[in-house]
Amino acid sequence: MSGGRVLWAVGDGEDPASPPAGAGRVVGTHLRRLRKDKGLRLVDVVKAGLVGSAPTLSRIENGTTPLKADMVLRLAQHYGVTDDKVLESLVKLATRSRDAQWFEEFRDVIPGWVERLISVESAAQEIRTYEVQYVPGLLQTPAYARVLMEHALPDPSVADPLKNQARRERAVKLRQARRALLQEAGAPHYYALVDEAVLARPVGGAAVMRGQLRELYNLEENVEWIHIRVLPFSKGAEAMAPAPSITYLSFPADREEDMVYLEVRNGGSYLTNPEDVERYRLALTGLWAMAATREETLALLDQYIAKLAD
Question: What CATH number is given to the structural domain containing 80?
C-alpha cells in the first residue's frame, strides 16, 4: 500500500522479500531519525570520524548489518541523546541484534507473514493484543495450540499425513518457544484482551479448554507483567474492534518505531505509519477501558472453568 501505511502484507504461504527484522531494524530506524532531525547527511557523520563510510552507516540504519553496542552509543550521543534510559535501551537492542535468531530451526513451519512478528517480539517493551476467536498465541497451552494446528489449513505441498503431523508438532513447539519470551528477565509488559467468545468456545473439548482457562487464570493472578482482561458479552456495539486480531508492539527507543500487526485466516499485514499505529493504539485503549476489571475477569474465568468440570 502506498504512503507507507502497510510495511508488507502477505498470505497463502508467500515469502516476501525479507525486510530488515528485529532489534537491529528498530535501532537502525531510530538512528536514522536522530541523524535527520539534526540535519546531518551520511557524509557528515563519516567526516566526524564516527563510522568508516557512508555505505556502512546506511547498512546500520537499514538494520542489514550486525550492530556493535559501542558504535550505537557513540552515534546516539553524537546526535544529542543524553537520556540514560534511552541510551541503555539502544545498547540493549543493539546487543540483541547480534544474537542468533533462535527461530531459525523452525523456519520450515513459520508462515512468511508471521516471521516479522516473531523477530521483533523480543525487542518490544510492551505488547498489547486483542483476539475475538482464540486465546492469543503467547498464552496458549501446548494442548490448546495442538488442536488449533490440527484444524489449520493443510500444507498442499506435504501429502504424507505423518509428515503433516510432524510439521504440526513442530509448529506447537515453535509457539511454546515463543512463550518463553514472557518468562525472561526484562520481559515486555503483555496486555491481552480477549472477547468472552474465546472463553465460551470449547477448543479441543472440556479437558483441553479447562486447562487453557486455568493457565490464563494462573498467569493473570501470578505474573505481574502479564495482564489479561475479558471483553464481556454484555458490551454492545461500542465494543466492536476494528479487526478480529490485533497486536500492537511498542519499542523502548522511540514511539515512532511502534507497529501494529493485523492477522487474518491465512495472512497478515504490518502497519508502521504513525497515524495508523496511533489509531489502533487508541482503539485498544478504548476496548481495554470497557473490559471487565481484573477481579471480574478472574471471576469469569472461574465460571467458565466450573462449567467445564467433569
Answer: 1.10.260.40
Picking from 232, 194, 235, the residue whose alpha carbon sits closest to that of residue 215 is 194
Q: What's the pTM?
A: 0.77
Q: Which of these three, 72, 97, 122, is where a domain ends? A: 97
Farthest CA pair distance, the chain: 73
Burial class (CB in 10 A: 0-12, 13-18, 19+), 291: buried
Q: Whole-angstrom Cα distance, residue 181 to residue 45?
A: 36
Q: Report whether 227 contacts 191 (CB < 8 A).
A: yes
pLDDT (tens digit per residue) in 12-60: 333 333 434 567 777 888 888 889 989 999 999 999 998 989 999 998 8
Strand partners, 190: 127, 226
Distance (Å, rounded) from C-alpha 196 to C-alpha 134? 10
